[in-house]
C-alpha cells in the first residue's frame, strides 16, 4: 500500500498501471524492469516505461523478480522450536546477520515440531527458489532428514544425520566438557564431581568424554564414583546434592545451568557456601539463569549465535566441514563469573 498526500492509503502500483501509462504491454514493462537480456524493445518504448515507473512510483516485487530470473537472494531456515526458545533463538540472529552480510535475506519458519507444517514450510521455500535451507533444532541431536530437504542445498544446524550426505554445524560438546573441567582444575581443584544427564545424547557422551580427558591430561585419575547421573533439570541438581557432598568433592561440573541452579539450592540448605566450600561450574550459559544466580555462575556457553552464522557460511561455500564427517564443530567458550 502507498499513502496519498491526504494521508489515505491507495493501492500499490502494478505493472498493469505502468503499462497503461506508458502505452505498452505488461510484457514490455516486465522486460524493462527486469532488464531482460535479449528482449527487443525500442528506445522510445523503454523511455516511456522508465518515465511511467518514475512518475507512478512503481516498486518491483522482489519475489516476482526472483521467480522470473530463476535466482534468489533468499536463504530459508526451518526450525522446530528455536524461535520460541530464548537462548537457542540466537541461532536465528546469527544466521540472519551472516546472511545479510553476504547480500541474502533469511526466511524463517518455526514449525513447533509439526511434520505437516514443516513439509509445507519447506515446499513454500522451494517455490520461492531459496538459495538453500538451514534446518535447525533447538538442542543438539541426531535427526531423520525430511525428504524434501534433498531437493535443494541444505545444511543441518545444531543437529546431524549420519549417512545422509548433508553437512552439519554442531557445538563441540567434548571440547566444552574439557574446558569446563579445566576451569575447575585451574582453580586448584582435584576432586571434581560431574552431574551428568540420564538422557542419551551427544551432550551426555561428549561432555563426559571432555571431563575425562581434562582429568587425564592433568594427571588426575578418572573416578567413576564421582559421576552422578541425574535428571537434566533443577530437580536433578537438587536431588544430587547429598551424593555430591558425601563424595568429598571440592568442585562440581554440572551438565547444564538448570542442574547447577538446583545444586545451588541444595548446597544452601546444607549450609555450604559457593565457592568457598565448593565450586560449581555450569554449561549452556542460559543468561536468565547463569548471570542471575548468587553468586553468578561460571559456565561454558553453547555457541548458538555462531552456529547460525557458520551454517550460512557453510551453505554459501565460504566454510567447509572436514571430510569424511561433514560435521563442523563450533567451540564452546568458558564464561567466567564468581562460582569457582
From TrEMBL:
Pfam families: LacI, Peripla_BP_3. PROSITE patterns: HTH_LACI_1, HTH_LACI_2. CDD domains: HTH_LacI, PBP1_sucrose_transcription_regulator. The keyword Ligase does not apply. Signal peptide: none annotated. InterPro entries: HTH_LacI (IPR000843), LacI/GalR-like_sensor (IPR046335), Lambda_DNA-bd_dom_sf (IPR010982), Peripla_BP_I (IPR028082). GO terms for molecular function: DNA binding. Residues 13-69 form the HTH lacI-type domain. It comes from the Bacteria. Keywords: DNA-binding, Repressor, Transcription, Transcription regulation. The keyword Coiled coil does not apply. PANTHER family: HTH-TYPE TRANSCRIPTIONAL REPRESSOR PURR-RELATED (PTHR30146:SF148), LACI-RELATED TRANSCRIPTIONAL REPRESSOR (PTHR30146). This is LacI family DNA-binding transcriptional regulator. It comes from Microbacterium croceum.
Amino acid at each position: 500500500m502507498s499513502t496519498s498526500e491526504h494521508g489515505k492509503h491507495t493501492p500499490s502500483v502494478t505493472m498493469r498501471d505502468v503499462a497503461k501509462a506508458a502505452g505498452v504491454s505488461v510484457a514490455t514493462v516486465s522486460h524493462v524492469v527486469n532488464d531482460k537480456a535479449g528482449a527487443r524493445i525500442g528506445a522510445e518504448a523503454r523511455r516511456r516505461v522508465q518515465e511511467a515507473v518514475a512518475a507512478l512510483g512503481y516498486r518491483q516485487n522482489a519475489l516476482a523478480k526472483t521467480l522470473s530470473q530463476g535466482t534468489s537472494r533468499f536463504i530459508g531456515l526451518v526450525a522446530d522450536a528455536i524461535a520460541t526458545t530464548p537462548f537457542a533463538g540466537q541461532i536465528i540472529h546469527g544466521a540472519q546477520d551472516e546472511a545479510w552480510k553476504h547480500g541474502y535475506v533469511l526466511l524463517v519458519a518455526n514449525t513447533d515440531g509439526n511434520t505437516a507444517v514443516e513439509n509445507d514450510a519447506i515446499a513454500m521455500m522451494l517455490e520461492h527458489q531459496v538459495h538453500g535451507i538451514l534446518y535447525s533444532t533447538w538442542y543438539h541431536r541426531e535427526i531423520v532428514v525430511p525428504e524434501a530437504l534433498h531437493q535443494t542445498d541444505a545444511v543441518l544446524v545444531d543437529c546431524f544425520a549420519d549417512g545422509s550426505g548433508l553437512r552439519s554445524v554442531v557445538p563441540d560438546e567434548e571440547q566444552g566438557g574439557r574446558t569446563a573441567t579445566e576451569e575447575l582444575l585451574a582453580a586448584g581443584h582435584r576432586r571434581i564431581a560431574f552431574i551428568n544427564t540420564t538422557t542419551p545424547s551427544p551432550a551426555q557422551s561428549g561432555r563426559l568424554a571432555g571431563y575425562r580427558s581434562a582429568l587425564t591430561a592433568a594427571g588426575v585419575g578418572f573416578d567413576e564414583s564421582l559421576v552422578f547421573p541425574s535428571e537434566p533439570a533443577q530437580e536433578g541438581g537438587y536431588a544430587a546434592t547429598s551424593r555430591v557432598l558425601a563424595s568429598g568433592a571440592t568442585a562440581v561440573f554440572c551438565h547444564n545451568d538448570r542442574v547447577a541452579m538446583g545444586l545451588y539450592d541444595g548446597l544452601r540448605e546444607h549450609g555450604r557456601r559457593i565457592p568457598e566450600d565448593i565450586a560449581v561450574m555450569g554449561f549452556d550459559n542460559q543468561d536468565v539463569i547463569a548471570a542471575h544466580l548468587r553468586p553468578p555462575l561460571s559456565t561454558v556457553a553453547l555457541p548458538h549465535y555462531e552456529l547460525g552464522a557458520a551454517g550460512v557460511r557453510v551453505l554459501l561455500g565460504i566454510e567447509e566441514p572436514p571430510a569424511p564427517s561433514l560435521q563442523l564443530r563450533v567451540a564452546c567458550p568458558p564464561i567466567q563469573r564468581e562460582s569457582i
